[in-house]
């Protein structure tokens, strides 16, 4: 039984964000629905990551804009919780989740209202137009103890909802260069008329 | 097709002049609209070939890059610039050793060759050797201390190593040379904010305020001012007096009003030009942010005066009464 189920919208937004800025690191947060107060046995069911918010493509390790973004996300997505973090590293061969990303993830994990949190690292080398595999690697912080280290999760721990369809959608999006219309929080701060929730893109992806 | 060619050239020129990094678009425009009609290009032909060459390297379209390099080599034989482009071509193929060789030879032959030395830093960065890249770049800056692009790059390299003090030092050099550049003040303030000590938070507040003064539409500076002033207002440090906390709270409220005003203006613009869905979402997001910004600032206020922060006219009058920041 997998711990997480990631919906195609979330996968698409992560990969599109990485493709929009191939020359720099990008990051963002993962969203899941807040559990209703009367839900039981919540720790046994997989947590559904239904959406992401692409955050920054420059200066990932500066705090003020991250705080401003998290404030806005909590204000806008009232029925959702931030359950994780994703990052695509700057260098092609860099597959390390450590560094500032791990630090941000730890803070998110500490404040996560759900029983588990997830760190998704984009596998830069695995991104290609054919989209034969989901180019994501999964990490989680070790539950017990003060260690704070991240441990890699096997792919079986994270399921992708309707994986084949997701890959096909992703391939179409890449061919159409849909990443050009993705708006991250950095873009929003440059022009606050731009919609960082990417609602139009979400409609396109769902159809 | 003629119209496509002219429009494409105009767009390529705009990208070139603004220094935007949109490599895929450049190569697509070139391949689809321009490359077949190069005989129609005037003096801008060679600038265009250079632009397409570098953009093609950036997105891995090596055939297009080679086509441009052939033309450039023919037109400018024995050129140092072309030699450097040949080395960049090797970089794009991940042949970093050969590229490094060429750059080292070029910078030894010509001590004033700043671009080859900067490419050496880029190669070290590509190899993931950030500490060596920093060393190389600091050596470069000893010889070329007015290179603003290099100071900015060094600041980013230090930030990647989480060395905030040295990153801040680089921004200080930039502010000294360009005291009216709002982005430098804003970046410096962000670094100080991230450092997190009481003194650095006060400095962050001052520099965010200065950035806002230089460019009232800088959203990062406004958000930063709101957060930094809010942190200063609720500081429990012995060195902060109640007067300074009240002042910080006032600043935070002012910043919140400014943010709210910007979002209201953006929301109304969005409502005119977009579909119902997105205007609803940006309106909703805008009003949520406005509410949140005001709530935040009210939390900072010791008197928690509910009415004061919400009037935009008060926000517009306040700049004159802001205390001097630096």
Automatic annotation (TrEMBL), chain A:
Domain annotation MPN: ranges: 4-142
Which branch of life, at top level? Eukaryota
- In this record, what's one Pfam family? UPF0172
Q: Give the CC-aspect GO terms.
A: EMC complex
Q: Which InterPro entries match?
A: EMC8/9, MPN
**Family to which the UniProt record says this protein belongs:** Belongs to the EMC8/EMC9 family.
Name-wise, this protein is MPN domain-containing protein
UniProtKB/TrEMBL annotation, chain B:
What the entry lists under Pfam families is as follows: TPR_8, TPR_EMC2
Q: Where in the cell is it found?
A: Endoplasmic reticulum membrane
Q: Which SUPFAM superfamilies match?
A: TPR-like
Q: Per the record, GO CC terms?
A: EMC complex
Lipid bilayer topology: Peripheral membrane protein
Which UniProt key words apply to this protein? Endoplasmic reticulum, Membrane, Repeat, TPR repeat
User: Hey, which family's this protein in?
Assistant: Belongs to the EMC2 family.
- Function summary: Part of the endoplasmic reticulum membrane protein complex (EMC) that enables the energy-independent insertion into endoplasmic reticulum membranes of newly synthesized membrane proteins.
Q: How does it assemble?
A: Component of the ER membrane protein complex (EMC).
Please give the name of this protein: ER membrane protein complex subunit 2
């Amino acid at each position: 039984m997998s711990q997480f189920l990631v919906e195609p919208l979330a996968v698409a937004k992560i990969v599109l964000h990485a493709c929009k800025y191939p020359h720099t690191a990008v990051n963002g947060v993962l969203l899941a629905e807040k559990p209703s107060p009367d839900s039981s046995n919540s720790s046994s069911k997989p947590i559904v990551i239904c959406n992401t918010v692409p955050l920054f493509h420059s200066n990932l390790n500066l705090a003020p804009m991250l705080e401003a973004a998290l404030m806005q996300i909590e204000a806008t997505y009232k029925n959702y919780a931030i359950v994780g973090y994703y990052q695509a590293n700057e260098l092609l061969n860099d597959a390390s989740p450590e560094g500032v990303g791990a630090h941000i993830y730890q803070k998110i994990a500490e404040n996560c209202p759900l029983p588990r949190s997830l760190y998704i690292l984009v596998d830069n080398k695995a991104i290609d137009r054919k989209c034969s595999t989901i180019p994501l690697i999964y990490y989680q912080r070790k539950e017990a103890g003060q260690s704070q280290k991240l441990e890699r999760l096997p792919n079986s721990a994270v399921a992708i909802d309707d994986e084949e369809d997701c890959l096909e959608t992703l391939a179409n999006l890449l061919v159409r260069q849909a990443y050009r219309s993705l708006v991250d929080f950095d873009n929003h701060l440059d022009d606050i008329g731009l919609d960082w929730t990417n609602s139009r893109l979400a409609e396109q992806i769902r159809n | 097709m003629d119209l496509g060619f002219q429009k494409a050239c105009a767009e390529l020129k705009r990208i070139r002049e603004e220094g935007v990094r949109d490599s895929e678009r450049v190569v697509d425009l070139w391949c689809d609209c321009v490359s077949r009609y190069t005989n129609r290009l005037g003096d801008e032909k060679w600038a265009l070939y250079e632009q397409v060459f570098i953009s093609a390297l950036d997105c891995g379209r090596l055939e297009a890059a080679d086509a441009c390099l052939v033309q450039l080599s023919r037109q400018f034989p024995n050129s140092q610039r072309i030699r450097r482009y040949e080395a960049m071509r090797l970089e794009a193929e991940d042949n970093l050793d050969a590229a490094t060789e060429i750059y080292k030879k070029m910078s030894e032959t010509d001590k004033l060759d700043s671009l080859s030395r900067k490419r050496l830093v880029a190669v070290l960065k590509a190899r993931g050797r950030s500490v060596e890249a920093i060393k190389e770049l600091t050596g470069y800056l000893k010889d070329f201390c007015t290179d603003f692009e290099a100071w900015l790059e060094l600041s980013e390299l230090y930030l990647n190593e989480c060395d905030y003090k040295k990153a801040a030092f680089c921004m200080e050099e930039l502010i000294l040379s360009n005291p009216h550049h709002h982005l430098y003040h804003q970046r410096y303030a962000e670094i100080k904010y991230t450092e997190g000590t009481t003194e650095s938070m006060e400095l962050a507040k001052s520099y965010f305020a200065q950035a806002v003064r230089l460019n009232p539409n800088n959203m990062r500076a406004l958000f930063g001012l709101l957060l930094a002033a809010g942190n200063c207002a609720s500081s429990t440090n012995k060195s902060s007096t109640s007067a300074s906390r009240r002042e910080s709270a006032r600043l935070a409220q002012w910043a919140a009003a400014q943010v709210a005003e910007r979002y209201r203006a953006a929301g109304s613009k969005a409502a005119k030009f977009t579909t119902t869905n997105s205007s609803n979402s940006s309106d909703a997001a805008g009003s949520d942010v406005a509410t949140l910004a005001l709530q935040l600032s009210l939390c900072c206020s010791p008197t928690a005066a509910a009415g004061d922060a919400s009037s935009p006219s008060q926000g517009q009058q306040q700049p004159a009464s802001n205390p001097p920041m630096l």
